[in-house]
Amino acid sequence: MATEFLMPKLGLTMEEGTITEWLVDHDSDVVAGAVVLRIETDKTETDIEASSAGRLQLVGTVGETYACGELIGWFLDEGEAAPGAPTTAATPATHVAVVASTVAPSAATTPARSGQRLFASPHARRLAAERDIDLSTVTGTGPNGRIVAADLDDIETAPPTVARTTPATTTGPRPTPATAAARQLAELLGLDLADAPVDPIDRRVTRESVARHVRNLLASDRTPRESTTPSLPQEPSEIVPFTGMRGAIASRMHASLQQMAQLSLFMDADADALVADRTARKEAGSTAPTYTDYVVAAVARALRLHPRVNSQVIDDGIALLPEVHVGLAVALDDGLVVPVIRSTAQRDLTDLAAESSRLADGARGGDLGFADFEGGTFAVTTLGVYGVDGFTPVINPPNAAILGVGRIRDDVVATDDGITTVARLTLSLTWDHRVFDGALAAEFTRSVCDLLQHPADLDRSST
Prior knowledge:
Blueprint: E1 3-6, E2 16-22, E3 28-30, E4 35-40, E5 45-49, E6 54-58, E7 65-67, E8 71-76, H1 122-131, H2 180-189, H3 207-219, H4 244-259, E9 262-270, H5 272-283, H6 291-305, E10 311-314, E11 317-320, E12 326-328, E13 330-332, E14 335-337, E15 340-341, H7 349-365, E16 378-382, E17 401-415, E18 418-432, H8 438-452
Parallel strand pairs: 12-16, 16-17
Antiparallel strand pairs: 1-8, 2-4, 2-7, 3-6, 4-5, 6-8, 9-18, 10-11, 12-15, 13-14, 17-18
Helix pairs in contact: 2-3, 6-7, 6-8
C-alpha cells in the first residue's frame, strides 16, 4: 500500500523546509528510521529519517522548498506504482537497503568506507569542502560517530572526492507554492493560484495575494498586469535571493513589525561593578562570563520580578508564561539564529555562561538541533562588539519583548570630588505595546540595570 512521505514538522515554529540533498537513490529500498535526506530550515540543517519502509520514490526536488505536510515522496510495495502515476509494469532493479546506524555514542567510529553513509555536521562539511578533505577518511568523534569540525583540525588536504550526483526525480510541473490559507480561499472562489502574484517576502502565494488578485479583477475588465520589479539605477553586481535563512529572517521580521505595536526605549546601566567582577574572575584564573552572560542572568531574574514581560499574545488574550527561557541571538555569516538557554533563571552565572558558550559555538558550527531553538520566552541581542551603543531590536515572535545590549564605554561625570569616569552600557528594550505599557517597560529595564550593579547576586540561581 502506498504511503505518503511528507515534509516533517520538527518544531512548533517550523513552517517549511528546503531539500538540500537526497541521501538515497530514486526507487531505493529503505527501512523505517533510516536517514534518507537532508533539509534546511530557517534555523538549522538536519538529517531526516524515513517515516515508513518500502521502495522510496522521490518526489521532492533538491533545492526546492516545501511546506510542512507537503508531499516529498512515496513509500511503495514491490511492483506498486505511486498514486496518479502511469500504470506500467515495474522493472525489477537492484535496491540498496539503507540501515540506521547503531554505533555506540561513546565510541569513535572508523572512517567511512565507500558506499557507507557519512554522518558529519554542516560546519564540518563546509570546512572539508574548503580544504579539499575526503570525509570518508576521517574518524568521527561526535555523537554516534558523527564527524565534527574539530576532527578536521590536524588533517591536511586530501585528493578530491567524487561528487555526489543529484538523484533523479519525477518529472512534471511543480505546483504553485502557496500557503494553506491561500489555497483554501482560491478553492472557495474558484481561482487558479497560478494567476495570483507571489509575495516578495514570503516567496509564496499568500491569502492576501489572492485577495489582491480578486480586487484587481473586480476593478478592471481586463486581466491585471503582472507585478514588475522596480527599475534599478544601475546593473547589480549580484542578486541575493530571499531564500533559506535570509528569506526566513525577512519573512519573520516583516511579519513581526506588521503584527505587533512595537516601541523602544533606551536606558544606561552603570557597569563598574560588572567590569570589576569579571576582572576579578579572570585574575583568579577562572573562566569569566561574557558581559552578555551577565545581562542574560539579570534579564532572567527581572522577568521573575515582572512576569507580564515573560508572555505572548494568543487568540484568547495575553498568556503569562511560568518558565523563563531566554533566547540569545547569534550572528552567522548568512543570517541570525536565536538558540534558547532553557530554565535561565534557575542557572547560576557559571552554569549559564557555559550553556551560552555551548549554544553559540554550536550555532556557528551548525551542530544544534531543533530542541535548542524552541520555547524561547524572551530574547537578548547585542551589537556592543561592533561599537554600537543603542539600537532598536525587532521582536522575535511570539515573544512580547527583546533587549538589545550596547558596548561598555567610559562616560565622564562630575562629582563633588571632581571629574571622574563611569563604565556604562546602553540597554535597548523593544516591547509589544499590546501586552504592556511604557511604565512597565521602564520598570523592567530599571530592574535589569539594578541587578547588573550586584553581579555577585547573579551567581546564585533564582527560584
